[in-house]
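Lecture 7, part 2: worked example. A protein chain together with 1-deoxynojirimycin.
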Amino acid sequence: MKQRLFVVILLSLSLFSFNPDKEPKRQLNPAIEAKITDLLAKMTLDEKMGQLNQYTSRWEMTGPAPQGTSNQQMLDMIKSGMVGSMLNVTGVDATRKAQKLAVENSRLKIPMIFGYDVIHGYETMFPIPLAEAASWEPELARKSARIAAIETSASGIQWTFAPMVDVARDARWGRFMEGSGEDPYLGSLFAAARVKGFQGDDLSASNTIAACVKHFAAYGFIEAGRDYNTVDISESTLRNVVLPPFKAATDAGALTFMNAFNEIGGIPSTVNSHLLRDILKGEWNFNGFVVSDWNSIGELLIHGVAADKKEAAKLAINAGSDMDMEGNCYVPNLKKLVEEGSVDVKQIDDAVRRVLRVKYLLGLFDDPYKYCDENREKTLILNKENLAASREAAKRSIVLLKNEGQLLPLKKDGQKIALIGELAADKDVPLGSWRAKAIPGSAVSLLEGMKNAVAQPANITYAKGPVYVSGKSLFTVQLEFNTTDRTEIAEAVQVAKSADVVVMALGENCFQTGEGRCQTDIKLKGLQQELLEAVYAANKNVVVVLMNGRPLDISWMAKNVPSIVEAWHLGSEAGNAIADVLFGDYNPAGKLPASFPRTVGQVPIYYNHKSSGRPFDGEGNVFWSHYTDAPNDALFPFGYGLSYTTFDYSDLKISSSTISRGEKLQVSVTVKNTGKVAGEDVVQLYIRDLIGSITRPVKELKCFEKISLKSGESKVVHFTLAENDLAFWGADNQFKAEPGDFKLWIGPNSVDGLETSFKLK
Ligand code: NOJ
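Predicted complex, written out as structure tokens:
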């Protein structure tokens, strides 16, 4: 898979080019624009406000319960054309009924658009997005987003609130699981791929849905990793780290954006006109619409930037937030604001035009019920093909972190295996957080997957170990971890003693992650560590299968346990996919999309950090940037992952030690499979710009390629670096490459590899 080619096609070479003069003028369809102009001319101001209003259904809520509007009032408002969109209405029957209310009763018969959080699958669950990023295969993410779109659209919905493209550096944050990790470049590829997957080639087709890129912006930078908290970052971090995935998603054609809940430097994103008007709708020429996050306009009062909902509405619409999700701010106030001259009606017209444009593009005006087809709903959701694709995505998302003494792969026959841990038999946790319409308890458990794979299922003995956690409901605020009831540890130890090898499933319940699921501690919770140590004392041949939605502190495990498999929350087919890896039917090739810290005290930790004036010199002198109680580096670095084979890197070549502006640098390296089995490796190219007008990261991923090699086979891998790949947002607020010296590395992760250097003249 040529990832560079993929970038070129998806991002049209403009991934990082924020220069408005260079921006592609995004094409508008003149026929659609003319229809919108006609329709706008017929609309009253009330009807226009209606298009900017979004309500949740009352039977499923993904935020605090709506206040102020009863169910009956909402139905009446839909009938009078005062609700342009709904979220959380699912299924053909429900969406058709709701659509009928709007189309058959309202004066102008404008269809509603239905949105839903389809984050990693609709009913067929794919790996959580963080896991899928570990595949380093954007094409895989495109395919799973495509299938998610087919299932979503078959249930009457035309819009997903995904992809979530927030760069994340703090493992305490519960929403780490929703994004693609810590790297803006890897995140950009996945952002673009997911948009392409959801939206497909033809938006008006009944199996494509609009994407919603979120959360704009910098939500991953909340202080202390606590959801909804304050963000204060520089323009440089915004431009160089936070925005690239958003830009990539825009270039891939994303139709909608969602505000972030957080402020940046005192300005809540919902009213941040720099983000919304200058950058998104200005520099990037984004033609779609921006939806607020759940009541994020109403929350302006609580942030303390608006005295009342009317002021909040004024600030939000003027800043460029087009649709009000569950805030009840626009409908009661926009008309008054226009009449008294605080909001220009042109602002409203522009917002309405954007909403109508998306509805036209989706084909809703041609047929408001085109997504409502019971036959499609019956046949396209959770079918065999979708489950097979989920298994494929899941196994490709697994990362082998340690495999000392080649304990893995396990034998399918003749080996007595103890399988230990509550998570091993759990059929729900692998579905992950943000699971849309997944049927609770429908995942293939690890126990089932392993039994499916072996010749003699009786060779696998399962011991549950102590209860891990209770209170799994989506809205349980505190999960209750068992830290007292040790009764089942003894049985687990017995089972371990009589086995040749022990597989332990440890990690997190899926509802330890997701929105509002932040933690101060990222160690194994409950009695898991105690169980692990007790089992390890009885039998050293331990393989830990981790199920989790964030980087964890697994320092003890990494030091002691011979084999560790990072298996995240992998979706519907999790157990089968993990068994594929454990028994060697698939040779793992995933790489970490985020650094794993040694301790929570290191977060935020990320490979592409700055040098500082006193980088640690390894000598132990105290006056350097370091901790006195832990090393600086990650336990497992970004880009890290092993295979059942080994690879050797040699012969790093560059086409020239100096390139001029506009010239391209050709880079090549030879990679050899030096082990006994075929395998894949992700060949990664990093650079460092040594001197810049602003400080530059010590390493930056610039390209990569996932290659497949038979035992003994070698391949020369070629990369091309263009001037644009060296560019960044510098001290002069320009996006450009600066002349000077660069280091370049190619290797299997962000730490190891061959090194060379070149100069840009
Ligand atoms: C709040 C979340 O932040 C957002 O990601 C989600 O799309 C909305 N709620 C709607 O459920």
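The radius of gyration is 26 Å. Confidence is low (pLDDT under 50) at residues 1-21. Keep this in mind for problem set question 3.
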